[in-house]
Amino acid sequence: MADRSLHQYRILSTLGKGAFGITYKAQDLEHDRWVAIKVLSLKQIDDWKAVELFEREAKVLSRLNHPGIPNYIDYFYVDTRKDRLFCLVQELVEGRSLANWVKQGWRAEEEQVRDIAVQVLEILDYLHWQNPPVIHRDIKPQNIILRQDGKVFLVDFGAVRDLYRNSLIKGGTFVGTLGYMPPEQFRGQAFLASDLYGLGTTLLFVLAHRSPEELPHVRMKIDFRKVVQVSESFAGWLEKMIEPALEDRYKSAREALAVLKGKRKLDRKVSHLTILPQRRQPKGSRVKVQKKLDRFDLKIPPSGVNFNNLGFFLFVAFWDLIIFGMVLIAILQQTWQILFFVGLHALVGVGLTIGSLWALASSARLTIDRERFRFCKHCLGVTYQENHGLTSELELASLEVNADEYGRKKVRCMLWEHAHNYEIGERLTPVEKRWLAEEISAFLQHLKQ
Length: 449
Description:
Blueprint: E1 5-6, E2 9-18, E3 21-28, E4 33-41, H1 49-62, E5 72-79, E6 84-91, E7 96-97, H2 98-103, H3 110-128, E8 134-135, E9 144-146, E10 152-154, E11 161-162, H4 163-168, H5 183-186, H6 192-208, E12 217-218, E13 221-222, H7 232-241, H8 253-260, H9 268-273, E14 288-292, E15 295-300, H10 310-333, H11 336-361, E16 362-369, E17 372-379, E18 382-390, E19 394-403, E20 409-417, E21 420-424, H12 430-448
């Protein structure tokens, strides 16, 4: 690949190889600058999942802007006679990965390791407060670049997943690196605290010069105190970063950063509040969501007549008016055969009218606390659907997109309870449904943490 050109980029040398492509050092001939170009060969992948992850990486990087993340420059593909090459171009940052520093014999002092931790936590805090939050999922020594002056960069977002997508896909994808992956990622799940585990184990690698898998373990937890010599406060902080149980770790990068800097001790009430940033309700939405630490209350009011359903209601009114006129004429002219035929259409009109009124007057309410949930639908004060159960049985809220026989997309917000699922907000806009899926999933994750 050396000396080959891809668009205006001339490949110079190989920087590294990963699960989702090869990264090269290249020269941008148009802007006279050095860049890093990551190339994925379609011929060399087993399935399209790799392409999906590659495109997701490009999409996420294009909306990030942080001094600790190399700038996104370009994304394109090149077709050859026998292959298609997907290319992601980023700013080239000088420095070496922590893995290379350790390989060359570098011994870091505790203060240096603390400084690396602070810089990475600041990057993670930025990522986790995106909307939707972004989870890196592959924090490891190879993906943290340390410059000679101490500046740190986080690279390789090939395993990235935004939390919205995490809430939309039932199950997950096994992505990460053994030794640096928290237990929940083995189950295909990733949370904000999952990145903290990866950072904690990476710092242990820098201190011990040994992979986390090679360190002693006690009850599935890394027992590093006999191997690593650090202050008691830093050792305690590290222990909480690498807790196997998700609920025992720091709940956010911001909390871990505050404790590391000594700004405050662990305050569980505060940490619960900082698990996820507040999502913004779509403009014009009349849905009411009230959240507390241990309770979620959703109220969906009757839709009434609005821009989205106005056409349908006008059609029903026009249908009823035509049928009423035809029935009236048939009675006046005593044409009973026509009356029978028109009567069948009148029944359809009655059904449409009842359905329209039902849609206008129907409301819904969902309440979730730590123990139980309750989902009800009402119309004119009458409850016509009621479901309830244990909150622990709820898995997630998802956004499903299906096409009807005419190819039109239908978006549904679904709440999953193991084998059962409930549709929420049938008459809401797709944007509102997405927002609700995020809100409900975030609260369920908060309860699990």
